[in-house]
What we know:
Elements: H1 10-33, H2 43-64, H3 68-95, H4 97-110, H5 113-137, H6 142-173
Helix pairs in contact: 1-2, 1-3, 3-4, 3-6, 4-6, 5-6
Amino acid sequence: MDEVLAIGSTPYWWMLGLLAFARAMDFLSTWVATPNLTLEANPIARLLGWKWGALVNAVLCVLAAQWPLAAVVLITTSLLVAARNFKSAWFMRALGEDRYRALAGELMEASSGRLILVCVSGETLLFALIGAAVVFFGRHELVIVAIGIGFVAYAGAVAFYTALGVWRARRSIR
């Protein structure tokens, strides 16, 4: 699992291409959902903005493509995040970022914090279980393990950024 790809080798270029595609899908899905980054859950991405974010991601891709385990984890996580973004992007775009944020805040206020926690935990734990099973049963295959770790990383990211978003929304309501 400590395999390193030589920069410029054919496997490196394939890994770089897959990474660039996955990160581009994450960027595209984010842009469709929140072109002004108003709804971006990651405060670092919001702070960097589109230009600096693209530069940081390009450097990340060039460096991570050398390590298959890290690259496949990042590819898997990025594609899952993009899929989640695309799921709601049309709704966010139709309402507009400010109106969507207001509606989400109203719905959070109308719901119990416990129900929100149970639902987010359910989603993230199910993804994490899939990832853990893939890691356990594929433990002898680098790509399979990396995909499993990507699922677990995705679950962690969803749990963290959803909790952060709920905390910020509830704080602003008070």
